Each structure stands twice: as C-alpha cells, then as structure tokens.
Amino acid sequence: MADSAELTTKGLRLEGLNKMAEGDRNYLISLFRTIPGFPAKNILFRDFVPVLADARAYALLINALAQALPVSLDDFDYIGGLESRGFLIGAPLALKLGKGFIPFRKAGKLPPEVYHQEYTLEYGKAAIEIEKNTIHKGDRVLIVDDLIATGGTAAAAEDLLKQAGAHVAGYSFVMELDGLPGRRALGDHPISVLMGMPA
Ligand SMILES: O=P(O)(O)OC[C@H]1O[C@H](OP(=O)(O)OP(=O)(O)O)[C@H](O)[C@@H]1O
Ligand SMILES: Nc1ncnc2[nH]cnc12
User: Fold this and answer.
1) Is the complex ipTM higher than 0.85?
2) Phi, psi of 187 (to 5 degrees)
3) Residue 137 C-alpha to ligand 2 middle, in angstroms?
4) Closest ligand relative to 186 C-alpha
5) The Phosphoribosyltransferase domain covers which part of the protein (predicted)?
6) Which is the closest atom of ligand 1 to the Cα of 177?
C-alpha cells in the first residue's frame, strides 16, 4: 500500500467550500488525506479523520455544512447521520442547527424493533437500521454523511425512511467521488456537497 497524501485544492471540484475564505479553505483541505489501496486494491480512500483532531478545522467543516444546506431549516425535522463517519458531522451539525439527530446504524447494533435495509458499497455489502420508535410517518430528514461514492448507503437511508412513511428532505455530504453514479441513486432530492474529487 502506498503512503497517504495530503489533499490539495488541485484536482478538487469546489462546491460548498467556495463560500469559505480562501485561507480557511486551504487550511481545512490540507487536513484531508488520501490513502491509495485501502481498504482494498484500486480504492483511493478519502479520509477526513485528521480534520476532527484539529479544533479550528472541525469547526470550519461544521460551519461549511451549515452554510451549504441543500434546503431551508423549515424543510426538515431531523438530521439523520449514517454510521459511523456520518455521526461525526451529523450530530454537531444537528446541535448547531437546533435539530434532533437520528442515528442510522449498521445492522445488529440497535435494539428491536427496527427497520432494516441491505445495500452494496464500493467495497462490499452492508445493512443499516433505524429504531422504529425514533421515526414517524411524515417526518422529514436531512441525511448527512462524509462521502458519497456509489450512493448505495444514502439510497438505503431513503428506503429505510420509506418503510416508516417518513421522507428524505435532502442530502448533505462533505465529499463526492466524481465518476461514480452516486447522485443518480438519489433521484431528485436536493443535494449539497462541499467538494468533489476523483474516485
Ligand atoms: O456511496 P457509497 O458507495 O454507499 O459509500 C459511501 C459510504 O461509505 C463510507 O462508509 P462505510 O460503510 O465505509 O462505514 P464507516 O462510516 O463506518 O467507515 C462512507 O462514510 C459512506 O457512508
Ligand atoms: N473511496 C472512498 N474513500 C472513503 N470512504 C469511502 N466510502 C466508499 N468509498 C470510499
């Protein structure tokens, strides 16, 4: 496996991050990493964990997501975070926006009763669940995650909400892997991404 490399603005497609002052943006971007060959051969693993360890960068990231919301605050009731990286940004964003947070967990972690949905990842298969008593018919949920690749995880989140008679209000991602059909899996929902990059 090759060494990890710092992300630079070169090669990035800036969307939500365009709104940030250049100095802050370059600082934030310098704390993302790319690890080639992890967790499988031919995968460029895009990693934002170093951002979390840096108080300034973490705050910049959550502020950027709040500035780039794909819908207005009145258009959703909850933020839904996708385990596990989606928790690390979804929960602080929910607190900042004054919304409740719903964890979409990997299968087998939540007590019954749950809604259950299987899906396919860029490098494997998985299933996610939500607790039946945390979500109700008609609820509108803004789904938050660090990254959209194939869109399988984010689409599974919508399938889970449908089982409850609830709705996706929109999707908010930090990173989008360009060249993969992620957005096509999400229909017409409003989507915001902070930046796109090669898959
Ligand atoms: O668009 P997709 O092809 O579905 O891929 C994106 C998903 O993959 C990663 O999560 P992962 O399942 O690796 O779990 P983790 O957050 O627990 O690391 C990432 O955090 C997204 O949730
Ligand atoms: N290339 C990638 N890097 C980080 N997380 C991912 N999840 C799915 N694909 C990924």
Assistant:
1) yes
2) 60, -140
3) 32
4) 1
5) 76-169
6) 1
